Amino acid sequence: MSVTTPSYEARSKSLKEFDPEVFDLIQKETERQEYGLEMIPSENFVSEAVLQAMGSTLTNKYAEGQPGKRYYGGCHVVDDVENLASARVCELFGAEFANLQPHSGVQANQAVFEAFLKPGDTFMGLRLDQGGHLSHGSPVNFSGMHYKVVAYGVRESDNLIDPDQVRSLAKEHKPKLIIAGASAYSRQIDWKLFREVADEIGAIFMADIAHYSGLVAGGSYESPIPYADIVTTTTHKTLRGPRSGMVMGKEKHRKAINKAIFPGLQGGPHMHTIAAKAVMAKEALTTDFKTYAAAIVANAKALSEGLVKRGLKIVSGGTDSHLLLVDLRPIGVSGKIGEAVLDKVGITVNKNTVPFDPQPPSICSGVRLGTPAVTTRGMGVAEMSLVADFIFEALTNVENESKLKSVADNVRELSKKFPLYRHRLVR
Ligand code: DSN
């Protein structure tokens, strides 16, 4: 006699049947994505195959440890999944090893700190308010709370990372770890410079390519793999995989990184997400993905040029990547207002400090724009000219409701021409 609570029938109901409230909220969010322009540079749209891997039965499996050396039985299938994912990622980036277990980019970075530093040790990273990342030394993040941060910045004259400052700070403070990488820096980072400086003082060099990894994989941004000891990344930005993180690097560091992630920081890896990372890597190994990466950069350059032509100011004068930072001070609009007014017309961006920003981070003087998501939809440089118009019109008419309404209509019309998850929008 079998126990029937919950019954097989109850457990087999679709989300729509079992929980229409959550189903409806997901539909609403899918509609928001479908009918707007997603221009936050750290966001993207995954494929149906990636979504299916994430929503799979692999979520049920505990697999603490490494493939072949787990602390649970029944891991032979997920071992194959993790080995496949790692092999594909190593092939994609030319890495000597990859650990795909970090749940996020910050946890990937934290693993590097755990592997190489002791609390109180000194490291260097790019200032958050000049394009860096929280986990590169912000005082409110573990990195700034538990370690001594020496922050380098960009030059006021051209807003580019100042190599002389990097070298002189490194020589003066002798950090154990030097981090290169950013979340709001649009230009090519000089990986070779950081390798040289790290060698001059015997430091570990970590490149955080969370923003650039899809471009690196597609050959549209120089790879730090030949230079860095360790490379970390998220997998959901330009790389267009599931929301997660990973660490790659030189073979000699494999053991220390693996140990830092498990048992150092995490318990069971998310095997469904690791399967989705395998799918992500398969997609990124195609020639289509190379075309995609090149198109992201071409679109960002076209958008930047379109905005400059209309009179807006771009930090550093342009971009070499997927993102651009618009300095709104010349048109007298704050980042906070800029974000809100663009949201109103269906263009999603985030307010962002510009280098040497006189405003606090809650207000900011700029907005950060990116092209990975609109490029996934199939938009090209012709559409970027329209988008530049929409952005300019909205930002220069923040109180003109009828103008904003007409921009919003145009945004919706353009989005409709580039279907995204239309097949998922069945009510
Ligand atoms: N929060 C991410 C971004 O938007 O750039 C970085 O982790």
CATH architecture tag of the largest domain: 3-Layer(aba) Sandwich
Secondary structure class reads alpha/beta
Uncertain segments of ≥5 residues (pLDDT<50)?
A: none
Termini distance? 39 Å
CA-atom Rg in angstroms: 22 Å
Name of the CATH homologous superfamily of the largest domain? Type I PLP-dependent aspartate aminotransferase-like (Major domain)
The geometry reads as globular
Please explain how this structure is put together:
There is one protein chain. This protein is α/β, with parallel strands linked by helices and 427 residues long. The protein is 44% helix and 13% strand. It has 2 domains: 53-284, Type I PLP-dependent aspartate aminotransferase-like (Major domain) (Aspartate Aminotransferase, domain 2), CATH 3.40.640.10; 287-422, Aspartate Aminotransferase, domain 1 (Alpha-Beta Complex), CATH 3.90.1150. The chain has helices spanning 8-11, 15-18, 20-34, 48-54, 76-93, 105-116, 142-146, 163-173, 191-201, 213-217, 254-265, 271-284, 287-309, 335-344, 372-376, 381-395, 401-416, and strands at residues 37-38, 65-66, 69-70, 97-99, 122-126, 148-152, 177-181, 204-208, 230-234, 245-249, 313-314, 323-327, 347-348, 350-352, 366-370. The strands form 4 sheets. Strands 4-10-9-8-7-5-6 form a 7-stranded mixed sheet, with helices on both faces. It has a 4-stranded antiparallel sheet with strand order 11-12-15-14, with helices on one face. The radius of gyration is 22 Å and the shape is globular. The mean pLDDT is 97. D-serine (DSN) is lined by residues 42, 105, 133, 183, 210.
